[in-house]
Amino acid sequence: MNNGKLHPPRIEPVREGVSRPLWSVMIPVFNSAHYLRQTLDSVLAQDPGPEQMQIEVMDDCSTEDDPEAVVRECGNGRVFFYRKPVNEGMAANFNTCIRRSRGQLVHIIHSDDYVLPEFYRRLADVAEHHPKAALIASRSFLVDHENVIIGVTERLPELEAGAQVVDSFFYRTPIQAPGVVVRRAFYESHGGFLLDLPYVLDCEMWARAISLAGGVVTSEVLSCYRVFEANDSARKARTAENLPAVELLNNLFADRHPDFDRRQGLHRLLHMALAQAERYAKANDAVAAAANLAYWKASAPMQLRVRRAAGKLADGIFR
After folding, report:
1. Spatial separation of the C-alpha atoms in residues 56 and 108, rounded to whole Å
2. pTM of the predicted model, to two decimals?
3. Which has the higher per-residue pLDDT, 315 or 53?
4. Which residue, of 137, 144, 202, 211, has the greatest Cβ tally within 10 A?
């Protein structure tokens, strides 16, 4: 736990004399310009003007498409495009978004997600009524590659009036990035995204913000989170790269929160590994199935490995 990357990177305050809009809408992009137009259209439809909203697209050196062309076409000069000099990965790009932000409220929205009407007005109202809360969020529809709604994130009644309760984040990620806004002042006080978490880095950040400075999650559904096999989360599941990150997050939560249950965290991790292995096996993706099963075998207690080998693993064993 002494790896320097596990310490949140420092975020410097905005320099004196720089104009401070209420909003900084920061859009990290990497090889997903196909959906970027819808993201930008959803933001620009609610644009209160440059004095109130900064809008920037942060390109992490895309190699397969041209996000700058999309910004030029649908941004009409309103959206600033910044291409990083080198590709640094998701966490570093998120931190670039924060460092380049000038607004009081920072909204990092993935380039394949989008917001629904009234998102910015409603969350600005919530932020005004909860001035001490570091995190303000809405619920999100889960949509597929054709914008078909396939689910919705859960309600979090314990956070609807504002609180510092993070139990809901211990074993799952109950809110999604397009619905989440964080005060820049929190990032300045407590740092950016952890560079050693290629997956669940958002869950760590949301839990950190809520536990240290409070959060509000409205029951309204005001954003859309895209779920499809080509997105970054799906790619990390195929290689089982998401699993060590969840294990690391379990260790972080256990260190920070005395009521975190290590056993339940392990069960969540093992369930993910086995479920992913079985899903890819059904899809005839032997490489992905083998990667996830290998992680399960390496991490599962001997008793579970023996029971599975004997064909006696019950469906609810990880509950």
Report:
1. 10
2. 0.90
3. 53
4. 137
